[in-house]
Every structure is written in C-alpha cells, then in structure tokens.
Amino acid sequence: MTPATVIEIGRNAIELMLTVSAPLFIAALATGLLVSIFQAATSINEATLSFVPKVVVLFGVLIVFGPWMITLMTDYMRRLFEAIPGMIG
Predict the structure, then answer these.
(1) Which residue from 15, 29, 25, 12 is spatially nearest to 65, judged by alpha carbons?
(2) Is the dihedral of CA 24, 27, 33, 35 positive or negative?
(3) Least confident of 20-24, 35-39, 73-77
(4) CA distance 68 to 75
(5) Which distant-in-sequence residues (6+ apart) come within 8 Å of 29 by Cβ?
(6) Whole-model pTM?
(7) Number of structural domains found in the chain
(8) What dihedral do alpha carbons 24, 29, 35, 38 form, nearest 10°?
C-alpha cells in the first residue's frame, strides 16, 4: 500500500463524512437561525426554545435522509472491503 493510496482512502472518507453530515448541519443551522430571529424579535431568552426545535428537526431530517445516508456509507464500506485484495497484493 502506497502513501498515495492511503491519502486517497482518507480523502474519500472525509468526502463521505461531509456528504452524509451536510443535511444535518444545514437543518441545524437553518433551525438555529430561525429560532434566534424569533428570540430576538420576541425578547424570549429561553434555553429550551433553541434546543428542542433543533432536536425535532434533526430527527425529522434523519427520518427523511437516513436511508440515503446508510446507503452511501454501506456502498463506501463495500467498495473499501472489495479493494483490500488489490491494496495488499
């Protein structure tokens, strides 16, 4: 296994991680922004008001995008395991 192969595997893993986590990050960011605007407009500074909506939205995003995320991760692992004989020999 060459250093280039290791770098390629690491790069692919980081790309997969960013791709899989992007829907969750975007949903949390959008929810946090909306809750912050609501809190600023109403002068309500309740800690649970910023936490609970994010959790609910993240669960919804996981329900919607979960199968897609699992498919991407299992495809990557399958390709990685199938490439092991070529990397060793």
Answers:
(1) 25
(2) negative
(3) 35-39
(4) 11
(5) none
(6) 0.81
(7) 1
(8) -140
Quick check: 88 and 1 in contact, CB under 8 A?
Answer: yes
- The tokens for 75 are 């495809």
Whole-number Å distance between alpha carbons of 79 and 71: 12
Length of the chain in terms of residues written: 89
* Distance of alpha carbon 17 from alpha carbon 41, whole angstroms: 36
Give φ, ψ of 53 to 5 degrees: -60, -35
Domain that holds residue 47: 3-88
Tell me: the pLDDT tens digits for 44-80?
Answer: 888 778 889 999 999 999 999 999 999 999 999 999 9
Rounded distance between C-alpha atoms, residue 70 and residue 57, angstroms: 19
